[in-house]
Design a protein that fits this description.
single chain, 59 residues, Ribosomal Protein L30, Chain: A, three-stranded antiparallel beta sheet, 2 helices, globular
């Protein structure tokens, strides 16, 4: 299965509660924190919801 790297590039301060929860569900804790995930439709949907806060790199 393909892998993707998700990196938090902006702060969640001032974001909606559901966006903050999505960032936490992706496993991102601090700015510049990188987490690897399998490339699934569920993960892609989460990334789309917070696309303005994260950076995605395909491995």
């Amino acid at each position: 299965m393909a892998k993707i790297k998700v990196k938090l590039i902006k702060s969640t301060i001032g974001c909606k509660k559901d966006q903050i929860a999505t960032v936490e569900a992706l496993g991102l804790k601090k700015i510049r924190y990188v987490k690897e995930h399998n490339d699934t439709p569920q993960i892609r949907g989460m990334i789309k919801k917070v696309s303005h806060l994260v950076e995605v790199e395909e491995i």
